Amino acid sequence: MYRVREWNRGDVDRLLEAFRWDELAWQESDVPHTPDEALDWIARREILAKEKDVHGFVVVDGTDRALGHVQVSVSSRRHDFGWLSYWTHPAEQGRGVASAGARLATEFAFAELDLYRVETGHRINNPGSCVAARRAGFRPEGIERAKLRYGTSRYDTAAHARLVTDPVEGVAEGVCGA
Q1: What is the DSSP letter of 120?
Q2: Domain for residue 177, yes or no?
Q3: Whole-angstrom distance, CA of residue 98 vs CA of residue 62
Q4: How far apart are CA 135 and CA 88, in angstroms?
Q5: CATH number at residue 113
Q6: pLDDT over 90 for what percent of the chain?
């Protein structure tokens, strides 16, 4: 149903729509506001992959329409681990886009990047992200107090990880911090 691919010029409008969502825009440091800035954002995905070992993909459905973004950053080659991040276009939330993208990007991390462990995390007040992580096979590992700061507010986060030996199935349903 869902797959990941590289971002391309045809995704500009959907990318700009997603970044108009306040929830996404205030969390990101690189927010495109114009079609040219969106094209630059897309072009940087290739540069980040080559120069920084940061691999970003668009999540699409059968119509090849951009539904969200997923990214794996290699954190340590010595210890073979990386960091997963994801977001879903606001109009597509609740359809399993984030969990599918997270699962596909993690499989890429294990198979293509030869990682052993992939970590992710989210604000406690974002229960949808917790559900997505669990459905992608990420086991909860704990709460990190006041880890993130947006503006003047600090947020606790839930830490999750998936090992190459972990099956996707078997993670208890539920919301972190509940």
Answers
A1: E
A2: no
A3: 16
A4: 15
A5: 3.40.630.30
A6: 87
